[in-house]
Amino acid sequence: MTAFKPEILREEAPPAFAAQCQGCELARQRHRVVWGEGNQQAPIFILMDNPGAREDKEGHPFVCGTRETLQLGMKEAGLELSQVYVSYLLKCRPVRAYDKPLAREACFSHLRFQLEEKKPCILLGLGNIVVQTLYPEQEADVKGYRGRWHAYEGIPSVFSYHPLAVRRRPVLMKYFVQDLKLVAERNKAGLC
Ligand code: SF4
Fold it and tell me: Is 108 exposed, middle or buried (0-12, 13-18, 19+ CB in 10 A)?
């Protein structure tokens, strides 16, 4: 059996209007805007809270623990990397404390733009912050939303644990894989 080896997905350059975005205080912390990565025409749009470290101290790209665990779960669920695009509520990586609600509100227009542009068949939201941002009026959390289909703005959607939570609590992996299987099965069935 070959050992699991995570892949560095190709990053998509941000559109000109976003590359120098000054929409929130993260503009002063970031190295660059991280628009997303993976297949730009993918049927599945994976949404997490914010980008983590992407380069080591020497500037070499690497796959962080979050993306490694995501890819491991995908492999277990039979979900191919070519089928996904990965992006974030915030397009800049925070390195210091910041006003989270203000930043999420400021950055939301970029996510809207992406969803309108890419028109994904399936949205896979990972982590409580994503659930609570997309469903702010409700007592929303992953526990209450995972394991079944939803429709966010008309897009068939599944929610699950953040890969970092799965990494910290391996007991969550089986639920994570169950949720990813829902997505893989719908995608394979071509229900777009
Ligand atoms: S996090 Fe979003 S709104 Fe804030 S500066 Fe970056 S791209 Fe702009």
Answer: middle
Structural domain spans, the chain: 11-188
- pLDDT at 1 exceeding the cut of 60: no
Residue 156, pLDDT > 70, answer: yes
Q: Whose CA is nearest to atom 2 of ligand 1?
A: 107
Q: Answer whether residue 173 shows pLDDT above 90.
A: yes
CA 65 to ligand 1 center in whole angstroms: 23
| Backbone phi and psi for residue 124, each to the nearest 5 degrees, phi listed first | -115, 105
Distance, CA 162 to ligand 1 centroid (Å)?
21
Probe target for ligand 1 pocket from 33, 34, 48, with the most ligand atoms within 8 Å of CB: 33
107 lines ligand 1 (CB under 6 A): yes
Closest CA to 64 of 14, 6, 111: 6
* Alpha carbon distance 184, 187 (integer Å): 5
C-alpha distances in angstroms, 162 versus 74, 143, 165, 192? 13, 11, 5, 25
Q: How far is the CA of 40 from the centre of ligand 1 (A)?
A: 20
CATH number for the segment(s) 11-188: 3.40.470.10
pLDDT tens for each residue of 18-49: 999 999 999 999 999 999 999 999 999 999 99
Can you give the pTM of this predicted structure? 0.96
